[in-house]
Structure formats: C-alpha cells, structure tokens
TrEMBL record:
Annotated metabolic or biological route of this protein: Cell wall biogenesis; peptidoglycan biosynthesis
Domain Penicillin-binding protein transpeptidase: 453-691
Superkingdom in the source lineage: Bacteria
Tagged with keyword Transcription: no
UniProt GO MF annotations: penicillin binding; peptidoglycan glycosyltransferase activity; serine-type D-Ala-D-Ala carboxypeptidase activity
Principal place of residence: membrane
Protein family per UniProt: In the N-terminal section; belongs to the glycosyltransferase 51 family.
Ranges of residues in domain Glycosyl transferase family: 57-238
A family per Pfam: Transgly
GO-annotated biological processes: cell wall organization; peptidoglycan biosynthetic process; proteolysis; regulation of cell shape
Catalytic activities: [GlcNAc-(1->4)-Mur2Ac(oyl-L-Ala-gamma-D-Glu-L-Lys-D-Ala-D-Ala)](n)-di-trans,octa-cis-undecaprenyl diphosphate + beta-D-GlcNAc-(1->4)-Mur2Ac(oyl-L-Ala-gamma-D-Glu-L-Lys-D-Ala-D-Ala)-di-trans,octa-cis-undecaprenyl diphosphate = [GlcNAc-(1->4)-Mur2Ac(oyl-L-Ala-gamma-D-Glu-L-Lys-D-Ala-D-Ala)](n+1)-di-trans,octa-cis-undecaprenyl diphosphate + di-trans,octa-cis-undecaprenyl diphosphate + H(+); Preferential cleavage: (Ac)2-L-Lys-D-Ala-|-D-Ala. Also transpeptidation of peptidyl-alanyl moieties that are N-acyl substituents of D-alanine
Protein name: Penicillin-binding protein 1A
Annotated organism of origin: Prevotella communis
C-alpha cells in the first residue's frame, strides 16, 4: 500500500508538471488566453505610441490607445535613487531572476495564502507588474485574476528575453500611473515636486515609489501622513538592501514630504488642444453626407473642402502601411514633426492665461456679482435663461445616462435641482464642494473662453495654437473648431476689395450715417463714435477708427455683396452660411480664429494667402519618411492692393484703436492690426500682423449671451488685444527666436499708398479657386 501510495504521488506530480508545461506552452503560443505578438513584446510602448515633435525638436506628447500624454524618459535621465528605491521595495531580487521570482512566489503562497499573513509581501516581480500593465485587462473577480497570473508569467519571461534589466525598469516607470494626470515618471516628478526625474532626491524618489503599492491609498496630496509613513517604509527597504547607510536612513526619515504639487495645466501639457486637433485631423475619414446628423451641414461642407485641399487632412485614411492597412496614429508608432515652436507655444499659452485668468476673469466675476442673471446678460429675461440652461441640461452626460435608464422628465428635473457632492474646477486647483448639477452648469458657463493662432505668412507654418485655457475641463477648441462673429476684423477684407477696384487709402468719402433700402426694408448702420461727423474722411482714417458708416458706404456705393462673398472665399473663409448682404461689411458672419489668421497673411505676402501648415513630415517607426508637406498658397488680391492694406493696418496700431500696443506694451517693432467687437460685446477680437508673424485672437463667453455689459472691458481692444501684446513682447524678448523688432515689412522702394495703377484687377463676383472646388464637391 505504501509503495502504491508513493507511486501515486509521483504520478500525480508528473501529471501536474506535464500539465503545467502543456498549459504554459499553450499560453505561450496564444492557444489559451491572449498572448501579444512577439513584435509587440519587443516594443510594447513605442510601437503603439505616435510621438509628436515641435519644430525646435521638443517632444510635445504622444498618441496612444489609452490617449494618455505619456512622455518617455531614458534610463540615464532617471535618478539612481529612484531605481534603487523601486528595486528594494518592489523586487529585491530583480537582477537575479528571469521574470519570475520563485522564492518570493513561494513565500507569498505559504505566508499569505496558507498562513494568512497579509504583510508578508507579494510574489509579483517588477517584470510581472509591467506585463500586467501593458497587456492585461482589469480582472473583475479573484478567479479572473488567478487565470491572468500564468499569462503574465509567460509574458514576463518573454520580456526578460527581449529586454535588459535597465530597459524593463525604464518601461515600468514610464508606464506607471501616479495619479493626478501624472502618467509616467517624467510627469509625476513634475507634478509632485516640479522637477525632472534626474533631479529627484532620495526622499522624493521614495515618496513616488511608495505610490506603486497603491496610488490612491498612499496619495500624498489627500493623505500626507499615510504617504509619509509609506515613504519611510521604502527608505527602510533601501537600508535593508544596502542602498542607504544607517545615518542616511535616519536623516531621510526626518525630512518632511515637501511637495511642490501642481496638477498638469495649460503650462505643463504641451499644446494640448493642438495635439487633439491634429489627431482628429490626420485620422479623419472621407466625408459622406449621410454620416453627418441633421444640422451639421456646415461641418460636412468644411470637412469636404479640407479633404480635397489639404493632404494632411485624413492622411491616415488616404495612405496605407506595409500591411496594406490604413495608418493609425494610435498603433503605428509614427513620428510627426509639426511646425509648432515649443517656446512660442508657451508664450502664447502664458499670454492667454495671464490676461484672462489673472485680469479679465476676475473683472468679469466682479461685474456679475449679485446679478440675478449671472453669468448671462442683463438683457435676457429669466425665461430666456431657463431655456438656455435646459438646452445645456439636455446636452449633459448626466441627462443622457438618466434618460437611457428610463428616468422620467420630472425625475431628471429633481435630480438636477438636488445638491450633490462634486469636485469642481478652479484656476487654483480642484475643489470639493456640494451644489446642484444645474448650478454646476451655470458655474462652468461663467468661465471666459479664448482662441489664439499664430503663423508665419511666408510659409504658413503654425507656430502657436491655443484652443482654450484648460483642455481637461473645456475641451471645445476655439482655435479651429469654434466659429464666432468677427465684427470689425472683417473690414480689411472689404477695404482690400475697394483697393482692387481702384481706390486708395487716401481717397475720401463722406462720414455720415445713411439709411439704405435693403429688400424693401430700411437699414441704418450705427457707429460707436461721431468723431468728424459730416466731414469727408480718408479710407485710412475710416479703417483706423473702425468706422461702420465708411464700411457701409463702400459696400452700398462702390462694391457689391456678391463680390465681397467671393473674395472672402478666396481668403480661405469657407463658411457656406455667409450670404451676400449689405450688413456683411460689419462682420456678423461666423469665422474661426485659424481662418482669420490665414486670411490676414495675404496682407503681408503681397496678396498671396498662405493656408495653415501644421506638419512638415511624418516618419515611420523605422525612420523612413512617409510624407512631407509643403506650403499651400493662392493669390487673393494684387500686390499693390495688399501693400496699401498693410499701410492702413499699420495706421490702426500707430494712431487708431490698437494704439495701446505702443504705449502699454512698449513694442516699437513695425506692427499692423485690427480690433473687432460684436453686438453687445459678445465677441472680442484682435488681428495682429508683424513682418514675419500673423496672429489672431478671440475672447468671449461660451454662449453669445455671456459677456461684459460695458465697453470698458467688453471691446476687442480690452478683451483680445492684450494677449497679442503679451505674446509679441515675449517673442521679441527671446533672442533664441528668429524674430526681431528690427524686422521690416517687405514694401517696394518708393511705395506710395495714394497711387493708382491702370492695370489693377477688378474683383466683382468672378469665381475663384475656392468656388470651383466647392462646385466639384457638391456635383
């Protein structure tokens, strides 16, 4: 019997061993569970993530399936103390095993599984933890987790086979989520200590490694005492592993956390709106009308134009990789080299932040304080405000979830009127509070929005792109996605049409208010000033003072609305809802910030408009250049007309509505510009032109009914112009940039703005390139 029993045990052991071997072989071959292809294991991060670079060689961020803005660092860029703390705490025999530490595994099984000692430590190695992060889905039960373990073991062994220990450590730290948008050690070091990973001290390294056990539980921001205790445990492990002396350990344990915490905001995330825009732009599919919901005709129209005109738009779906599949920025590991300059991007974001957050938003809050309509205009009734808010309720995620779950309208109404705990955004950090969902909608509506776009007119290269002040909470992009009424910034286009029709900046017209009959109805344009009323004034003066009566006179007596619309199309303004009408000369049409910047390049470029150029080249993960992109230009007006417009735009800065650029920002460089303010101060605009840069800026509320009630802060010169002033001041102060206050506009020798040319073209409704392309799209 004893002999039989021993034989049975040996047989059982053999069956278990053979069964385990067969099981692991099946896992390795992908016959059980999911086993990533070997090429994925050889490059588990970089194969997927597309890297986006600035024109000055800085990594702006990455595109990956998880959509995290993880920025990689090399092993040499990580503080040695961080490596030591990780190994000592998470895997003391890391340099001795080949992916699985059988000693630690056996200890965990006996002490934790059999003896129930929870503090006995786990059996997962750093390599296994990396395998879990890279390739395992979240387990929803103990059984699922048990089944995942063998798969992770096999993956860990393969990772060890394909990578050095240093590479595995680096991947682990680059991949780990340290909370607060701090994905990867580079972002974590910056978020918690405002440092680079190479600059971390021993105690700071120990604090971050302490998070690896459980980031939420040992969160140093929410639970500093708990985090400090965990940090000291890590220091103890470093002492045990001989990475620290007893004296160093005792000294480090006395050091407080010393956090220098700040969640990644507009200053930390590099060009967040731009990267999101570019991802959608490159991944766009060929527009099909049936794919667009009702009411999205303009979107379909614009996308169709981009598809036909811009090789970058939909590039991934216009080209195929070596496997014959369309490119995917989230899985093909491309390198995209953009025209954005990281320094200029920082200056643009800082200018928007400094003006709006530090100055304009507090003034708006003060103006709205104790007003029953806040943040909406005093011109609205309570019924009108409720209709607007109800529209926003129906667009909210809470409403959608409740509606899909079968909640009645009354239940939804009560839910939106019931106070609940929530975390809200402020410019000083997130705040825990209690308020009703309806009040939270109103609260977020109170934040002013902005869009800023700066490009080189000679090449079309976009150097700075700001779609808003906080991408996480206000993701709607006001640089390219949003369109708002442009007000008086449209007037230079009208004046350029007048220049094309034989007029000059010195020509005089009557400065009087007239009433015109339009479709049988009277139209009487209003003006903000009665200066020089009844006099004959030059066109230069009319644009300089942004006089509405002069614009109306040109449109009604010298030009035609049809010719103006055609010219706008040739300037790159594509909105199909811009219809010929006399009032168009005052800017009631909606145009994006990017379109306005591109249109104004024609004034610097002798009548040649440059389309925005976002990317110079795309490279695959083996270094092969897949595509290169060149400037795209079209002639809009003659060189002589453009030079005359430049002369008038400079007068706006040197003696008109943009004069504060000189006396407030002390910029002496040659500049031109145009302010714009729409009805009720709903939109504030400024267009700024320098010899080598054209910039467009818009500031306003999320809804048109959210605005300043007075012109003091509500006009374009107060809302938008300061952003351009701060931006250009920073640009000119940076000697590493190729822009100088000594730069001059390229005007012909002996240029006379008051001369006329006999061979000047007459633009009066003749179809241009844009109209021809539009006809092709809608045939």
């Amino acid at each position: 019997m004893r002999k039989w029993f021993i034989g049975f045990l040996w047989t059982l052991l053999a069956v278990v061993v053979i069964g385990a071997a067969v099981c692991f072989w099946a896992i390795s071959e992908g016959k059980i569970g999911y086993m990533p292809p070997i090429e994925d294991l050889q490059n588990p991060i970089n194969r997927y993530a597309t890297q986006v670079y600035s024109s000055d060689g800085k990594l702006l961020g990455t595109w990956s399936i998880s959509r995290e803005n993880r920025v990689m660092v090399n092993y040499s860029e990580i503080a040695p103390s961080l490596i030591q703390a990780l190994v000592a705490t998470e895997d003391a025999r890391f340099y001795e095993h080949s992916g699985i530490d059988f000693y630690a595994l056996g200890r965990a099984i006996i002490k934790r599984g059999v003896m129930g000692q929870k503090a006995a430590g786990g059996g997962s190695t750093i390599t296994q933890q990396l395998a879990k992060q890279l390739f395992s889905e979240t387990a929803h039960s103990t059984m699922e987790r048990a089944l995942q373990k063998p798969i992770e073991w096999v993956i860990a062994v393969k990772l060890e086979k394909n990578y050095t220990k240093d590479e595995i450590i680096t991947m682990y730290l680059n991949y780990f989520d340290f909370l607060h948008n701090a994905v990867g050690i580079k972002t974590a070091a910056n978020t918690y200590f405002s440092k680079e990973p190479s600059e971390l001290t021993i105690t700071e390294s120990a604090t971050l490694v302490g998070l690896c056990k459980n980031p939420s539980y040992f969160n140093p921001v929410r639970y500093p005492e708990r985090s400090l205790e965990r940090r000291n445990v890590v220091l103890g492990q470093m002492l045990k592993a001989d990475y620290l002396t007893q004296e160093e350990y005792d000294s480090c344990c006395q050091v407080p956390l010393n956090l220098n915490f700040h969640v990644a905001d507009h200053n930390d995330g590099e060009a967040t709106y731009f990267r999101d825009f570019l991802a959608h732009y490159m991944m766009a599919k060929k527009p099909v009308r049936s794919d667009y919901p009702d009411g999205y005709y303009v979107k379909y129209y614009m996308d169709s134009l981009y598809w036909e005109q811009d090789p970058l738009y939909g590039w991934c779906n216009k080209n195929v990789n070596r496997n014959g599949e369309h490119y995917n920025i989230y899985t093909d590991g491309l390198k995209v080299y953009t025209t954005i300059d990281s320094r200029m991007q920082q200056y643009a974001e800082q200018a928007c932040y400094d003006h709006i957050v530090k100055y304009l938003q507090p003034e708006f809050n003060k103006a709205m304080r104790n007003k029953p309509n806040a943040p909406y205009s005093r011109n609205l009734t309570q019924a009108e405000i409720q209709r607007i808010l109800q529209r926003n309720v129906r667009q909210s995620e809470r409403y959608r979830v409740m509606k899909n779950s079968g909640s009645s309208d009354e239940e939804i109404r009560r839910a939106f009127a019931t106070p609940v705990p929530m975390t809200i955004f402020t410019y000083h950090g997130e705040v825990d509070t209690t308020m009703t969902p309806m009040d939270s909608i109103r609260y977020y509506k109170s934040f002013l929005r902005t869009g800023f776009f700066s490009m080189e007119p000679q090449t079309g290269a976009v150097k700075a792109y700001v779609g808003g002040l906080n991408f996480r909470h206000f993701a709607y992009d006001m640089a390219t996605q949003g369109r708002r009424q442009v007000g008086s910034t449209i007037k230079p286009f009208l004046y350029s049409l007048a220049m094309e029709n034989g007029m000059t900046p010195c020509d005089e017209v009557p400065n009087v208010q007239e009433t015109y009959m339009v479709n049988g109805k009277p139209w009487t344009p209003r003006n903000g000033s009665r200066a020089r009323y009844g006099e004959m004034v030059s066109l230069k003066w009319g644009l300089q003072q942004s006089n509405n009566w002069i614009s109306a006179y040109l449109m009604m007596h010298r030009l035609t609305p049809e010719g103006f619309v055609t010219l706008l199309h040739n300037y790159g303004i594509r909105n199909p809802e811009i219809h010929p009408a006399p009032s168009l000369c005052l800017g009631p049409c909606e145009i994006s910030v990017a379109e306005m910047a591109s249109a104004y390049t024609a004034f610097i470029n002798h009548g040649i408009r440059s389309a925005p150029l976002y990317v110079t080249k795309i490279v695959d993960n083996e270094g092969n250049t897949l595509a290169e992109f060149k400037p795209r230009m079209n002639e809009v007006i003659s060189g002589d007309a453009a030079d005359k417009m430049l002369y008038m735009l400079r007068a706006v800065v040197d003696g008109g509505t943009a004069g504060r650029l000189r006396f407030r920002y002390n910029i002496t460089a040659p500049l031109g510009g145009k302010t714009g303010t729409t009805t009720n101060n709903s939109d504030g605009w400024f267009m700024g032109v320098a010899p080598r840069l054209v910039s467009a800026c818009w500031v306003g509320g999320d809804d048109r009914d959210i605005h300043f009630d007075s012109m003091t802060y509500g006009q374009g010169a107060s809302m938008a112009l300061p952003i351009f002033g701060l931006y250009m001041k920073s640009i000119y102060a940076d000697s590493t940039l190729p822009y100088s206050q000594d730069d001059q506009f390229d005007l012909p020798p002996g240029f006379d703005p008051c001369s006329t040319e006999d061979d000047m073209r007459i633009v009066d409704g003749a179809p241009g390139e844009a109209d021809e392309i539009i006809e092709q799209i809608f045939e």
